[in-house]
Amino acid sequence: MSDALEQGYIKQEFNDGVATIEFFHPLSNSLPSRLLAQLADAIREAGQDEGVKVILLRSAGGRAFLAGASFDELISIQDLDQGKKFFSGFANVINAMRECPKFIVGRVHGKAVGGAVGLASAVDYCFATKHASVKLSELAVGIGPFVVGPAVERKIGLSGMSELAINATEWRDAEWAYQKGLYYHLHESAEQMDQEIEAFLQRLKGFNPDAMRQLKQVFWQGTEHWEVLLERRAAISGELVLSDFTRNAINAFKKK
Fold first, then answer.
1. What's the rounded Cα separation, in Å, for the pair 52 and 18?
2. What letter does residue 250 receive in the DSSP assignment?
3. What is the pLDDT of residue 227?
4. What pLDDT score was predicted for residue 240?
5. pLDDT at residue number 255
6. What is the dihedral of CA 226, 231, 22, 188, to 10 degrees?
7. How far is residue 194's CA from residue 256's CA, in Å, rounded to a whole number?
8. SS (H, E, C) 128-149
9. Which CATH superfamily is domain 3-192+209-255 in?
């Protein structure tokens, strides 16, 4: 395992009914499979903790919110099983968020690319700053946003998801994402956003937990098949990543 794949962390903090789950990796918060698995576990753990009323998902660092999965790990895939397992990383996180009985509030302070757009789509309520541009870059490296696509489409519709997926080299600014319904609040700074999030969490944790749990089930109705769907989508990406076209595209991207 390379040094880059061993770096980063998933951290949990529990404070008066609020579980804060924070992720970080020094390479623009691009997460290897190891951290994605830990992130899914952390979400499940917080969801089953009776003392937790609401969950905050955030990343550390001052720049990107999340730069998707690890390119170092992506380029090392040698067979279909490895490819499917790699792309199942974000699938497992999204399914953990979907199945979690607690509301998950997202904090997006910077750019979100690839799997990050999937996570921002899968939280139940999302705050962002004006710096939180979005891009689905998968097609540009020979793959496609197959795994995160269902979550993105559910949140911003097929038209918005298609625009991001097809125009894979251009960023859409935070205002675009806000108008599409990906973000519910936009803020000038992370400091201003954090004040609003804190006030929101304090209100939210005082609501009836059973009502919130059942309301979340209503919001996610019709996604019960995602366990199988996202696994199939991971297999599609896992096969594509083995092609010469995709390997050449990834190597060219890494040299930029």
1. 6
2. H
3. 97
4. 93
5. 67
6. -60
7. 34
8. EECCCCEECCHHHHCCCCCCCH
9. 2-enoyl-CoA Hydratase; Chain A, domain 1 (3.90.226.10)
